[in-house]
Structure formats: C-alpha cells, structure tokens
Amino acid sequence: MDKFDVFVFGTGTAGQLVAQECAAAGKKVGIIDIKEYGGVCSQRGCDPKKLLLASSEAFESSKNMNGDGITGKIKINWKDAFNYAKRYTSNIPKNTEKNLKEKGIICYHGKASFKDAHTIILDGKEIRSEYFVIATGMQPLSLGIPGEKYTLTSADFFNLTEVPEKVVFVGGGYIGMEFGHMLCRAGSNVTIIDKGDQILSPFETFTSNLLEEESIKMGIKVIKNAQVSSIEKIENRYCVHYAINNQIHQVTTDCVFNTAGRVPSIDKLNLALANVVADKDGVLVNSNLQSTSQAHIYACGDISSKSLPLTPLSSIEAKVVADNLNGKKRELNIPAIPSSVFTIPQCSGIGLTENEAIEAEKTYHTIESEASEWFNNQRINAPLYGYKIILENDSNKILGAHIVGPEAAEQINMFAIAMKANMTFEELKDVIFNYPTWGNDIKSF
C-alpha cells in the first residue's frame, strides 16, 4: 500500500501549486488526474482559447482598418489557427508530469475514489494519506434532456478542425459567447439559445446589452428566455427543439455545443464514503479551505464552495491550502476579482453590478456612457466602447466597474488595483497615465 503525507486530486493550476509547495517543505506527496496532466486552463480552456482568439483579433483589426491603411481580402484560416494552438498545448501534459516528478512528487493516472476518510482506491489498489487536497475543477452541466448525447463540450471545441456551416450554443455565458464570436468571424452561422433574459447573466446589464447588440450586428442570432427541450439527429444534422412562452420552435444545425454552465467535478470521488459534505457549489469548506466535516481534507480551485471559476483565484486558494498544510495558519482573503469575457469587443467587470448594489442596500450613484466616439476607439475603427462605474455616495469609493470595448480586460485591471488599495474614484483619476492609452481614458470616465 502506498502511503503519503499529502495526496492531491487534480493537476491544474491549484493542484500543481499545492503539490509543489508541500513537496518543497519535505512532505511525501502524491497526485492524480483522470485526464492528461495540466488541467483545463492550459489545454481545454483559457490558454488555447486565447491562442485561437489571436486569429480573430487580427482579422477584426484588419477588417476594421480596411480602406484606412489595409487593403485586400482577409479571412481566417481555421485549420492553421487550430494547428497554432495545438503546437502550444501538445507538450503540456508530458512537461507538467516531468516537472512534478523532478520535484519528487509521485504521479498517478486514472479514476480514484474514496474508500474511507484516509484511503482511496485506484484500480483496486489502496492508497492512504494523512491529508487530501481536492482540486478537480469543474465539468459541463448536464442539460438533462433527450438527445443530450449529441452535444459537444468546450473540450470538443479545441478539437474542431473545420468550421461548421451552422452551429448552436445552448447557453449564453462566457464560453458560448467567446466560442460563438470566434466561429462567426470564421464563417459559421451562429445561434445562441439562453434560458435567461440576459446573456452573460453575472455581468452588468448595461455592458452585457451593448455586447449583445454588437453580436447581433455581426450576424449572431441570440434567442433569450428559451428552454431547450430536446435534440434530434436527422441524418448528418441536428434539430434543436426549444420553447418560448409554451410555444415550440426549432433550429437545424451541423453541431450543438452545451455551454449552459459548469458544475464541480466531484461525482466520481465517492465523497460520502469519506464523510465529506458537498453541494452544488462544491466541497463545503471553512476559511482555511478545510472540509467542514473532515479537517484533514482540503478543497481549492473551482471545486471549493468559496471559489469562482477564475484561474487567479485558484492560485490564491492553493497558496492558502499549501500554507496550512505546511504549518502556516492562513485564512482565505479574497480581494475584488476582475472577470472578462474575451469576445470582440471584450466585456469586463469587477465588484458589484447595479442589481447587486441594490440587493446589498448600498447608497450609490452610477457614471455610465456609450463611448464609441472616443479617440482610442475611433483610432482603430472599433464598433463599440462603453462603461458603467458604481460609486458609494458618501465615500465615492468604487463599488463596481464594468467596461465593454477593445481593451476592457486591461482597463479593468486598473480598477482592481484601485479597489485593492481602497482608493476613491477621484484618486484613481488623479493618477498620471501614458497618453493616449486606454488606461488614460479612465480619467474621462
């Protein structure tokens, strides 16, 4: 029987960091993954997405400047973009495992599950550990409808070697919107079906609505307040049935992606046998990220009930877990975290939306504008730019900031710094920025 001081489930950002720090502290560490090493972000998420997006960004910039310095017909070669992304991701599993082994970490592959609070089973073999860390991330939410087996997931998107003529995304969250924008620019006829009355529901309504309008202008069909009821395969195509106000509609497509959301990936771990309490948000943990029912079992990254599906937060949580395991008592302290949708234009936010400010009974005022005519946006002939800032009445502290535009993801970082430093909005605007840059635009918000 193999025995460890610390055993980690998951080799993504969080799992790797915990394993490495514990091994560096002299602990005997084991780690396992049910898939290839490296986690979602590096192979089936953030990084390959941004690599594929690079072609869309170059295409959009060239298209917008056509006639103002750029000439000729421009198009996206999806196969070349696919190969470009694959060149980056192909060696990640091998290099990740090699790096872990070089640090003295014992690496396993396969489906392991708990037998009891200190024992797991892998291929009939028992493995014991004094401490466990669960960092298995998230997986697609089941639609629970007839024909769900015909849907593709975000992982399948990164194996898409050809551009489908027609594609349907079930869910208008950040994954569906990002993929939809890329495929639309590559030539697909894109339809997004969402059950809510707002795409990108966690984001500020003002910026979300502006992005929706621009998405429709570029050719994406957005269907809201619709419940997909079934998917039917007809020869080599698929018919997606959905209801709006009790009336059934349908759309025929070449492929259907399930982008309705993601849930904690815990269903294969047999947590009940270890007396680990979990719910729809993940493993229930305290401020030290220990299981509320088993103090020797920790959870971090997307799997933690205190987490959000954001890579920077996974790293923060992993550091908290590692410190606690290594004898440095530490609680999780989450700063305001920026979040971005890498559509074109980008949509970013940090802090409270206006609806959240109302629910929290804040006394506030807003500053908002559609700023598409501003110089930086006009300089590159970009179609859309807008912002909404939510400020506390008495202090003028920043409660929330929301931007849609070509460089929203970078601009929102300025607000992350300001909110971390507890700056007022005036103090942020008093900073001297390079001119003319997108950061300097904040002085005119």
Keywords:
30% helix, 5-stranded antiparallel sheet, 27% strand, single chain, alpha/beta, globular, 445 residues, 7-stranded mixed sheet, 13 helices
Describe the structure.
- The protein has 445 residues and is an alpha/beta fold.
- It is 30% helix and 27% strand.
- The protein contains 13 helices and 23 strands.
- The protein has helices spanning 13-24, 39-43, 46-64, 78-89, 92-102, 154-157, 174-186, 205-217, 311-325, 354-359, 375-379, 408-420, 425-429; strands at residues 2-9, 29-33, 106-109, 112-116, 119-122, 125-134, 138-140, 166-170, 189-193, 221-223, 227-234, 237-244, 247-253, 255-258, 262-264, 278-279, 282-283, 297-299, 339-341, 346-351, 364-370, 386-392, 398-405.
- β16 and β17 form a beta hairpin.
- The longest helix has 19 residues, at 46-64.
